[in-house]
Specification:
- This protein has 20 helices and no strands.
- The chain is mainly alpha-helical and 508 residues long.
- The radius of gyration is 23 Å and the shape is globular.
Length: 508
């Protein structure tokens, strides 16, 4: 052991460092809450702003898409200018843009605000993890602090619906954006005092073509899927897919050629690392996709008020927190290639339950609980696998890839599962013959649109509501079967890839 290693081992954190960790968890919770809270508020926003189906999906995905595309870039910027400075800049911008987004009067304004929030959110996430490394030099204390950080990712996603239900019960939909101000204010006030600046490294300039290619690749592919769900397969969808795939191919080639790449793709050659990333991505996609349709089922189809609807999801949220911590000693004894498929099995059973018994509150409560048992445990196990599989010198890049996968999972949860839901709803809806023109179009676009048209249709409204609810339940069943198939395939992949990573000699 070197002298530097010895110094690192004996340096213990003080109460001031632990207070700093509490501050760092505020932006982590906020960024992850924002991934799911809007899905819960979507019915109220749909009533106020009347977005179409694609605009509803973009309201959710604009934030996560921009955030995912810029995470690695902002990690590199923080290495050069200091992560504390970048964190405080991101917190200030996030709070201001959130307040402006609360004033949106059109779907376009809200989507633009969400995209800007994604830019500042990308400044927050890498900086929090980097500053944990600066605060905690003792290995065991740092390991515990990273576990707290990983748990907050799941806790934030689980708290989104609950926070949304409480706020929407007493305030307008704009309150979900104003939440950022009281959450980030302690960080802005106390951060300069409690948080040390991270060491600044000069490791070359940020490669701007790589930044543009990464954002273009994600945007192109996501837009193609959204267009396919909203309009169908046509030239626009094909062009977006070609642009996205071409940009992704060019990005990979460029990273392999650069001496200092924006993203070190060599980490993905490690089977354990790559397998954990894929599992993490899919688990978050399943969670966000479930929240997307469950919140509409609870509030619109079943007619629950926002607070009662959010309380129906509390058991699952509590399980996410408990299981996320309780799985740690189990993961030390059970090999990952056995444990993760079992955890994915909980998610598969959750969607299977919805597929065969959709439309009841008890079904959604039980399914969300099962889903959170799997996803909450997977978040802790996969984060530990990622950090252990990467060389210590590349821990920062590994964390950035893991965070990017997290956000891409959020995007794909609403893009793929949400897109299938929208397409299934349109195909299953039997619009009453008395509805024509704009009214028929609005009813066929979204469930909220159908209920809005029904409120103005007089006696014919009840038949439209019944038809729309039936179509939505049919679409929910289709999405759930798709999720069951995706989960089963991922279970097989995880078992094979993680087993090969655990026994590299036999695998080779």
């Amino acid at each position: 052991m070197s002298a530097n290693d010895e110094a690192t081992t004996v340096s213990r954190a003080t109460p001031r460092h632990w207070l700093g960790l509490m501050l760092l968890m505020l932006p982590v919770l906020l960024v992850t809450i924002d991934n799911t809270i809007l899905g819960f508020a979507l019915p109220k926003i749909a009533e106020a702003l009347a977005p179409d189906a694609r605009q509803q999906l973009w309201m959710i995905d604009a934030y996560s898409l921009v955030l995912a595309g810029l995470l690695v870039t902002m990690g590199g910027v923080g290495d050069r200018v200091g992560h504390r400075w970048l964190l405080l800049l991101g917190a200030s911008g996030f709070a201001v843009v959130s307040a402006l987004t609360a004033l949106s009067s059109t779907p376009g304004q809200l989507i633009a605000g969400r995209a800007l929030m994604g830019i500042f959110g990308a400044m927050l996430m890498p900086s929090t993890l980097a500053l944990i490394g600066t605060l905690f030099t003792d290995r065991e204390q740092r390991r515990f602090a990273v576990a707290v950080w990983a748990t907050c990712l799941t806790v934030g996603s689980a708290l989104g619906p609950l926070m949304g239900g409480v706020l929407l019960q007493y305030f307008s939909w704009a309150s979900i954006f104003l939440l950022a101000i009281p959450v980030l204010l302690p960080l802005l006030v106390c951060g300069p005092w409690l948080l040390p600046e991270s060491p600044m490294e000069q490791v070359g300039n940020i490669d701007l073509p790589s930044v543009l290619l990464s954002v273009l690749a994600l945007t192109g592919v996501v837009y193609a899927i959204k267009h396919l769900a909203g309009v169908g397969a046509d030239g626009v969808m094909a062009m977006a897919l070609v642009i996205g795939a071409g940009a992704g191919f060019a990005f990979v080639r460029r990273q392999l050629r650069l001496s200092v790449p924006l993203l070190d793709l060599s980490l993905l050659r490690n089977g354990t690392f790559a397998g954990a990333i894929v599992v993490n991505l899919l688990s978050l996609a399943l969670l966000v996709g479930f929240v997307f349709f469950a919140t509409q089922s609870l509030q619109i189809v079943l007619g629950l008020e926002p607070l009662r609807a959010s309380l129906a999801l509390v058991p699952g949220q509590a399980l996410a927190i408990v299981v996320g911590m309780a799985i740690v000693p189990i993961a030390q004894r059970v090999p990952a290639y056995r444990l993760i498929p079992v955890l994915l099995g909980f998610a598969g059973v959750a969607f299977l339950l919805v597929a065969v018994a959709a439309g009841e509150v008890a079904t959604l409560v039980a399914a969300f609980a099962l889903l959170n048992i799997g996803v909450g445990a997977i978040a802790s196990v996969s984060t530990d696998l990622v950090l252990n599989a990467a060389p210590p010198a590349k821990a920062g890049e590994a964390s950035a890839i893991s965070e990017t996968a997290y956000e891409v999972g959020v995007v794909f949860g609403t893009t793929v599962l949400g897109g299938v839901l929208a397409a299934g709803y349109r195909s299953a809806l039997a619009v009453p013959a008395n509805l024509e023109g704009e009214q028929a179009w609005l009813a066929g676009e979204t469930l909220a649109g159908a209920h809005g048209v029904a409120a103005m249709a007089g006696e014919q409204g009840s038949s439209l509501i019944a038809a729309a609810n039936l179509a939505f339940n049919t679409a929910t069943t289709q999405v759930s079967w798709l999720a069951v198939v995706l989960t089963a395939l991922t279970m097989l992949m995880a078992w094979h890839v993680l087993k090969a990573g655990a026994h590299p000699k036999s695998a080779s």
